[in-house]
Structures are given as structure tokens and as C-alpha cells.
Amino acid sequence: MAALSPTLWVTIERVFGQLFGLVLFAVQAPLLGPHAFGLVAPVMVFTGFWEAVPGAAAIDALISIREIDRRHFSAVTLLSALLGALLGAGLWALSKPLSAALGDQDLIPIMHALAVLPLLQALTIAPMAAAQRDMRFKSLTIRTVISYFAGGAVGLVAALAGAGVWALVWQTIVQRSVAILVLWVAVPTLVTPSVSWRHINDVAKFALPNMVSRVMSWASGQIPRLILSAILGPTKLGIFTLATRLNDIVTQVAIWPKMTVARVDLRQYDVNRASLSAPLRKVFLHIGLFTFPLCIGGAAIMHTLIFTWLDPRWQSAVLPCQLMLLIGIPYVSIYVSAALLLAFNSQTWEAVISAGQSLVTIIAVWIMAPYGVSYSVGAIAVVSAATFPAVVFLMWRECGVRIRDILAPQAPPLLAAIVMGIAIVASRPFLESHMTGKAALLCEFLLGALLYLGMVAAVGHKAILDTFQQAGLSLRRRRHSPTHQEP
Where are the domains of the chain? Predict the structure, then answer.
């Protein structure tokens, strides 16, 4: 296991976290219903602000600093702990007015309980940054596995015992607490008692521009939840939460692992951009091979999946879930552009594109929310698609990336995934009329998987086959002619 590549360790971590969370959700959803998930969602908007904005910006800053020492980690830990405590206290103090604004007094005790999360999350920043900087992703994977098992066990037992929404609350607190303990044991402490203003300034120089981008990214993902909660109520927000959860699965499993490693690995090409083409093409190809079939195949089987998996309370989620999955297609270019800009220390431009996308997303959701969840998700999809040409232009202008190096690697897996999706949709009426829902779902899944893998094997490009073999999949190799060179 120690010989696994950094990308595979990140992939294992993300796949485990998402699959474990999905299995846990599959058990809890019929027990708790969308209302419980809708109650927790707006609270997590505020507690998640810390992890998504200052926490993530601090980690990126510690990765970006070329000459680093222990005082940089100490500065981040001290400031993060103070800010986390302040944010938690603010959430506690504002629980009553926020609950009144969202129209549900049941949120008050939930906010009080979860106010501890920003401080807990602050204590993970230094070891997480050290692990990523040194490519020690095995430690992060161990942390995820142990903490998810601990939190999941508590949440499942509480849900079965009839604890309602509190099963989700205690599940979150236990998971984050165990993550801290495991991470500090796995990654030796880099914190010292002394902190200097020079080290604080070093961190701030990288963190502040990135924080603008993080704020807008957080806003585009979380403020729509507050809008939908206020306008449509917690039950509809629960539907939206399911749709975004599926989108998160695609992002975290198929996009984020390679992007996380590329964020560090592509730094070496900042001084030699003429050599960037081949490694960047591999990044696009690798991410596209796994993202596109998950997005298009997932959208194709969603109708059967929802009607087979969940009770009638969830059946209006089919279209929002399909749209949220399809958003993953432009996300490939959007996320890779962010990784490349950060690798080249172009945090300002990354912040500009993120801010523009986030602002338009919030406005679009605010306009469409009165019409329902599907219209709101559709608005998010349109904004994401419109962002695609902007990031392509930005990579070309700021990083010298040729447009064909962006589009060409993504075209084969995208076309294969589209053919697969059409085949699944065309076969559904026949399958559903001749077998049970579970059997039809299994057949749709197998049809899509075999068809997609078959098309990839038929193409036979060495880079494509190597990508699947690195992920542990076995595909037939072809004998390569001179025309079958790695793209």
C-alpha cells in the first residue's frame, strides 16, 4: 500500500468518503426523511464557511510558500484557532435571529451544538497542509477512514434509536473530533510556541487573494441553500441537498483527487511552460475518463434509482439530481483551470473567475427559487456552462495553454459517455416493463459500464488504457501503431 501514487491515495480517500456517506445516507434517508436533512443543511452553511474559506485558503498558502519553516505553521494554527473560536461564538449568539429569519425555531439548539465545529476544523489545518505539501496523502486517507467510521456508527445508531435530526448533529461532531486526533498522530506536529509578523505576512500574501475566491465559491454553493430554505422550506431544501450531494460525489471522487495532486505537481512548469502541454493533457484526460461517465451515466439511471431506492417523499428529486450531475461536465475545465492558476501563483485571476461565477449563480438562484428546486438547479447548470469558455480563455491568456490541449483530451471520453447515456435511456422502457425496479437498475448500470469500457478499449490509446490500469481496472491492450501515440 505504501507504493501507491499520491493520486491513488487521494482517490481512495475521496471514493471511500463519498461511498461511505452515500451508504449511510441510504439507510438514514428513509428513517429521517428530507425534513431532517433540510434542518441541518442551513446550519452547515455557516459552520462550513470556516472549512471552505479561511481554512482552505490557509492550507493553500502553506502549500504555496516556497521557503517554509515551523513558524509558518504556528502562525496559521494560532490565527485559525482564534478565528474559529470567534466564528463559533458568533454562530451561538446569532442562533435566535438566524432561526427567525429562516422561519424555524428548531434550528436554535442545532446551531448551539454545531458552533464548536469551526474551532475543531481549525486544528486540522497545519497537519493537512504538511501532509499535502509533502505528498503524504496516505495519512489523510487513514484519517478519513477512521473518522468516517466513528461518526457514521454514532449517526446510524442514533437514527435507529429515533434521535431524529440529532443523529446527524452528533454524527458530524464525532467525525470531526476523531479526525483531529488521528491526523495529529499520523502527521508529526509542526507547531512551535513562537510566531513572528514576518511569517504571518508570508501566509497572508498567499491566503488573502485566495480567500476572495474561496468566499465566492462558498457563497455559490451555500447561499442558494439559505435562499431555498427561506423561500421553499426545509423539505424542499432536503431535495436540493440530495442533488448537491450527488454532484459532490462526482467532484470529490473523479475531479478532486487528480486536481489536488496537480495543484502541487504543476508548479514545476511555471518556469518551463513549453513543457506544460503533455502533463496538462494527461490531467484533463484522467479526470474526464472518470467524470463524464459518472455524470452522464448517473443522470441516465437517476429515474430508476430514485424510484427504487427512496420512498415517495423523495421522488421529486429526479430532475434536480440529473441536472446537478450534468454540471460536472464543465466542472472538469473549471477545476483544472483553478489548479493550474494556483500552481502558477495566479491567485488573483482564479479569484476573479470564481467571484464572477459565484455572484451570477446566487442571483440566478434567487430569481428562480420561487419556481421550485428544478428551476433553481437549472439556473446553476446554465451559469456553470457559461463559465466554461471564460476559464478556457483564461488558461490560454495567463498560462499559455493551447485550446486544443484543453478540448482534445476531453473529447473521446465525453463522446463515449454520451453514447452510453443514450443507450441507457433507450433501454429503460423495455427493462422496466419486463423486470422489477432493482433488476432494471442493475441492468442499466451494467449496460452503461460495459458499453463505456468497451468503447474505451476499442479506441486503444495508450494514455487511456494506462489511466484505467492505474485505477486498478483491467482493459484489453491493443498493439499500438505510430498513429496511436499518447495525446
Answer: 1-216, 233-487
Q: What is the band of 163 on the pLDDT scale with cuts at 50, 70, 90?
A: confident
To the nearest 5 percent, what fractions of the chain are helix, strand and coil? 85, 0, 15
How many residues can be counted in the chain?
487
d(C-alpha 282, C-alpha 269), whole Å: 14
The overall average pLDDT reported for the chain is: 81
Residue 266 — φ and ψ, nearest 5°?
-75, -5
pLDDT of residue 213: 66
What distance in Å separates the CA atoms of residue 487 and residue 478, rounded to the nearest whole number? 16
Distance CA(424)–CA(443), nearest Å, equals 9
Least confident of 245-254, 255-264, 406-415: 255-264
Q: Note the pLDDT of residue 482.
A: 36
Residues 6 or more apart from 430 whose CB is under 8 A from it?
A: none
Contact predicate 251/331, CB 8 Å:
yes
Residues 342-370 have pLDDT tens digits of 777 776 777 777 778 888 888 999 999 99
Q: Measured between alpha carbons, how far is residue 258 from residues 230, 264, 278 in Å? A: 36, 10, 15
